[in-house]
Amino acid sequence: MKISLGRQSILLLGVNGLFVLAGALSGTFLNVYLWKSRPDYAMLGWFTISQQIALGLTFWLAGKWVKEHNKMSALRLGTGLSGVFYMLVLWAGPRAVDWIWPLGILFGCALGLFWIAFNVVYFEVTDRENRDLFNGWVGLLGSMTGIIGPWFSGLIISRMADNTGYRLIFTVSLVIYVIAVVFSFFLKKREVSGTYRWSEPWRQLSVKDSPWRPLGMGLFAQGVREGVFAFLIALLVYIATKQEYKLGQFSLITSAVALVSYWAAGKWFKPQYRSRGMLAGAILLFIVLIPLLWKVSYGTLLIMGIGSALSMPLYILPMISAGFDLMGTSGENVEKRVELVVLRELCLMVGRLFGLAVFILTVMNGPSLQTLTWLIVALGAFPLIGWIFMRKMLVHPDQQKPSA
């Protein structure tokens, strides 16, 4: 039987693609922009922590609006606030480093509103049969925007004097966010049902033998790695090369590889391969970090980037699909899908905050590059821990009966 996506799924992919493109254009260089104003690892760590705290709390608080009122309003507001964030960064200029916490909180709220709405609508417009296909397309679009966005931004920034290039790119992102808001009006207003249960995430995790416990630990482990890697790797590429163009080139190459790997995963990766695929991906994600122990250079970072791009679909697709499949195992879980999306994000948030806390404690006393490298390798081992917790629930996915 041929698996395909419906019109609403395709429209949702389009909105997601525009949102990710705007982030790829500016987000890749945002931390470099702040670093050039104040070269301080801890400052960037606190900026990321402020985002994560706001993102997690927004997921939890906005869950009530998404479940009982209008999901599309949350999605549009999140997109619009992302544009406002870059508008404020443009206004503040180099003084943005003095407003790390309010800017981080604003950006975290924007991301939280967008992603809780996106994740809930994504669950509603897909089912168990086409969920891996949809995830593959999300990864594919993310890789395509990762090819175009950072390379274009790096080229523009490197060819323009002072911070003129940064201001232009941030402005372009602002315009794309506006276009994404307009595009979102083509999505149908989703039906709402039920009452939001504020304590549901904690209740699920407190139940003995709940499948959300191992999944929650797997998400925590994922968050530990990505909380730091999300900003530090790009920054290390810039520090190693001192060229924004090289950072854009790095993103172009790694995203091109990811495009192929996500396309292949979307086409051939099936539920029965999830456990072995996730283990293989976790092992490879760790192995590609080893060259950094010898030398942190553009070459070794590129090896790590290419290896991660090849391995990540094997690891991340089972993680995402297993979580959303778990939401569809019963009519009761489908009814609580908003709360379960919140649970998923809170587990990721706690993991990211843990990783970032370790990072800040490491860099507070002016660490050497060697210390940072060992930290990267240590955090890079956490996907293996995630697989250990999730391996049993991935072995027999057909035992989970679909109801969505």
From TrEMBL:
Its main location: membrane. InterPro entries: MFS (IPR011701), MFS_trans_sf (IPR036259), Sugar_transport-like (IPR052528). One of its GO terms (cellular component) is plasma membrane. The keyword Zinc does not apply. It is found in: Cell membrane. Gene3D superfamilies: MFS general substrate transporter like domains (1.20.1250.20). One of its GO terms (molecular function) is transmembrane transporter activity. The chain crosses the membrane at residues 12-35, 41-62, 74-93, 99-122, 134-153, 165-187, 223-241, 247-265, 277-294, 300-320, 341-365, 371-390. Keywords: Membrane, Transmembrane, Transmembrane helix. It is a multi-pass membrane protein. It comes from the Bacteria. This is MFS transporter.
